[in-house]
Amino acid sequence: MEAGAANTERQQQRYIHGTGRRKEAVARARLYPGRGNFEVNNKPARDYFGGRDVYQIMIAEPLRLTNTVERYNVQVRVVGGGMTGQAGAVRHAIARALVRADPELRAVLRRAGMLTRDARVKERKKVGLKRARKAPQYTKR
User: Fold this and answer.
1) What is the mean pLDDT of residues 83-107?
2) pLDDT by residue (tens digit) across 41-84?
3) Is 24 within the bounds of a domain?
4) What is the pLDDT of residue 2?
């Protein structure tokens, strides 16, 4: 009975959302008014990203730049890609959600490059080559 009550409470609670992408990863972030709790795929962010500090710093960067760490609880769903791609997608999603929450933050996040989608993806293998650019060894005779 209590689980259902918590679910309806969460549905009634107003949130701001943002979608972020990086490589093959897609993240959907929701910012709820709160105290700074961070959840990724229903796990604490530290557990999800395996305690690697570089990912913790990366995903919290938009909140830190805008001084909103203690203002929002962040809930993120992320699918596809690897850890670095997912962390980049989460950062992009949070930055977009923050701009939706407060348009005055756009200049700060834009200057830091958080709102630009990182378009770098793996290059395709070409015909006649071993990989995207590696050619077979040339023999003269």
Assistant:
1) 94
2) 999 999 999 878 999 999 999 999 999 989 999 999 999 999 99
3) yes
4) 56
Contact by Cβ (8 Å): 86, 43? no
**Secondary structure of 40-63 as H, E, C letters:** ECCEEHHHHCCCCHHHHHHHHHHH
What length does the chain have?
Answer: 141
Q: What is the strand order of the sheet 72-79 is part of?
A: 16-22, 25-33, 72-79, 38-40, 43-44
Domain hosting 81: range is 7-111
Sign of the four-CA dihedral 28, 63, 117, 78: negative
pTM above 0.70, yes or no: yes
Tally of structural domains, the chain: 1
**Is 118 a member of any domain?**
no
Whole-angstrom distance, CA of residue 58 vs CA of residue 46 = 12
Query: Using CB atoms within 10 A of its CB, is residue 130 exposed (0-12), middle (13-18) or buried (19+)?
Result: exposed
Task: Find the angle CA(65)-CA(90)-CA(108) to the nearest 5 degrees.
Answer: 25
